[in-house]
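Final report, closing paragraph on structural work. Over the funding period we assembled a curated collection of sequence-structure pairs, and we close with a single example.
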Amino acid sequence: MKPDAPEPLNEHDLERLQALLDALPAPLEPLDVTMLDGFLCGVLLQPKPVPEAEWLPHVFDVDGRKLPPGVDVAPLRELIRRRHAELDGAIRRRDWFDPWVYELDEDASASETVMPWVAGFAAATSLYPALMELDNPELLEPLATLFMHLDPEDLEDADELLAEIETLEPPQQLDEAVEGLVRSTLLLADVSRPLPRKPAVRPGGGPRRMSGQRNGPPRRR
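Its predicted structure, as stored:
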């Protein structure tokens, strides 16, 4: 990690972040930390950077309503910026990252467990549709891998996406579902945030790591 890079959030930071979100006054409806994580990925995958002033209000309130007078969100903003920077670096480098996904009760399926993360991602792509509007067939499979965890009725006018989802087998294990979140994020980045072209590897050169390839096992919080 570069010396000037923000420190990744630890467990204490994560608990504080959720507490600060919970403390925002009504009628605000803030995202929880799981939805926030998916939302940030949806924002970061846009072909053009989305200014913080546009997306941050939707973290404090899903509808982007103004904060009541006197509400200090500086500590909350600092934690959100750190996670945004951490995810941005991982996406830029095509590195594996640990999504903020919480295990639910023992009867919950893998799809039910990752659904809040995907809902946050979907909220971002609804607010900022440029990613979804890209005309590239390479988007279809990773988008289907993400949106398969949502209710099909939420995918209006997405016949091609729904047809692709029908061809996929829902993950049975949470590790598999979490891996799908990360792999799909990195594959989408290959389309919306392509890496600069590198010179061809000379004969005898080592293999290059493929985008979306797993570097290590996902960890669940």
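The CA atoms of residues 52 and 149 lie 28 Å apart. The radius of gyration is 18 Å. We thank the funder for supporting this effort.
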